[in-house]
Amino acid sequence: MMKINSKFISSIVLSACCLGYAFGQNIIYTDIPDITISSTGTENGAVDLNGDGTNDFNFKTAVVDTSISGTPVNFKGTIVTEAEDANKIIGRTTDLLGQKILTADGLSKDDTIGPNETFINTKDPSVYPMLSLYIKGTYALGNIGVGDFNTADDSFIGVKFTIGGDPHYGWIRVNISKDGLTCIVKDHAYYDEPNKLILAGQSSTVNIHEHSTALDANIFSSQQELRIDLKEYSAQVDVKVHSLLGEVVKSSSQMAGKKLKLSVADLRTGVYLVKVNSETKHITKKIFIQ
User: Fold this and answer.
1) Given this structure, which CATH class describes domain 212-289?
2) Segment 246-255 long-range contacts (CB within 8 Å, at least 24 positions apart)
């Protein structure tokens, strides 16, 4: 088992003179040997996020016979349960034949996991006393699938758990077969500072520096648009939007004019770095896109 601690350092520049401040946080990333759970095996996937010897979440394949609104239903698939009452997973309730099923949300890379998300656990009312990653129900009128995790691709589960009574946020990467009967638990990470959000798949942090070189600009987002007011500067510029992991998620070249607009309607809610460059001047600004 390998653990990696990485410092997150952010310098926010308040003017072209580079007046700023910094703060630090730790991401604890654990690369575990893949745990494979299948309908033919007996192994359960227990995840201990902070290595304190206590399991935080358990994964397993399950076969459950139950009745929903008087209709017998046989469920087969992969589920997850919390090991402690305070532990929760980003998810929702799904209606099935007039009853509620608890379903974990399948997250994509860079999705936000933090205090503003909706978390559930098995203490929430449900006809099926577990959180579905993907289950298939068979009943008299046919079959029905419930859950986001049947793509056979890597997906992320957003989790909240406690350390010393304080909430911490993290993710667990899983890969589940299309029939829901095989689950591979791959790795996980969390922020060791309470109440700090993390991005799905974030295993380390990058140095972020906001700065400008003579380019006086106002950069903000509004109504699903990135707006850049170059004030007195009207030369052509290149605009790039980066995720906090350093990936370019939006770009536009040779934009001209003092007031520029770039659609960000396809970007997920979160914090991004906007870099505006001309031949001789540039500015980097951290903004929140909603």
Assistant:
1) mainly beta
2) 246/206, 247/110, 250/226
